[in-house]
């Protein structure tokens, strides 16, 4: 293979395509709830970790604070979240899940679990566990900053 010839598949492209297809399927199925995949991800973090500052949620979702602010604006308008000032620093806004979120989160979780089951259909449970372990290892490997990351 020459230097300019690219392989037909790579880890990055396969992972990106799988993620894109999971996201697309979720968006179609969760449309009845009025949820996008980005909103679902934010709600999962709120339900797991409780009320959190917008800046922390932006870090967790790996998006810019302004993008999180716009997402939170839409979600507040839709009744999914409430913003409250931090009792110790009024410049900080804390996002809270609403009663609407608590009422619908189970349905959204069922949608996600059905999609995951569809994605993993036909795979032996042992292979699924190996896949999950491999993905956790990849995440761990890439979560640590290396010297070469600083050079770029």
UniProtKB/TrEMBL annotation:
> Among the record's GO biological process terms, what is one?
response to stress
Entry-linked SMART domains = HTH_MARR
One Pfam assignment: MarR_2
* Coiled coil (residue ranges): none
What keywords does the record list, in alphabetical order?
DNA-binding, Transcription, Transcription regulation
Q: Where is the HTH marR-type domain?
A: 8-140
Q: Which SUPFAM superfamilies match?
A: Winged helix' DNA-binding domain
Could you tell me one molecular function GO term of this UniProt entry?
A: DNA binding
Extract the PANTHER family matched here.
Answer: TRANSCRIPTIONAL REGULATOR SLYA (PTHR33164:SF64), TRANSCRIPTIONAL REGULATOR, MARR FAMILY (PTHR33164)
Name this protein carries in UniProt = Transcriptional regulator, MarR family
Please name the source species. Answer: Rhodobacter aestuarii
């Amino acid at each position: 293979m020459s230097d300019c010839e690219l392989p037909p598949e790579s880890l990055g492209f396969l992972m990106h395509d799988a993620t894109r297809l999971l996201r697309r399927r979720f968006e179609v199925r969760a449309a009845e709830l009025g949820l996008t995949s980005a909103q679902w991800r934010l709600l999962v973090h709120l339900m797991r970790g409780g009320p959190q500052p917008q800046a922390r949620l932006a870090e967790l979702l790996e998006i810019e604070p302004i993008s999180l602010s716009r997402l939170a604006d839409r979600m507040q308008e839709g009744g999914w979240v409430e913003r409250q000032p931090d009792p110790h620093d009024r410049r900080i806004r804390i996002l809270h899940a609403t009663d609407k979120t608590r009422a619908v989160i189970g349905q959204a979780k069922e949608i996600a679990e059905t999609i995951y089951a569809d994605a993993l259909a036909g795979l032996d449970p042992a292979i699924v566990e190996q896949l999950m372990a491999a993905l956790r290892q990849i995440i761990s490997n890439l979560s640590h900053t290396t010297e070469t990351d600083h050079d770029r």
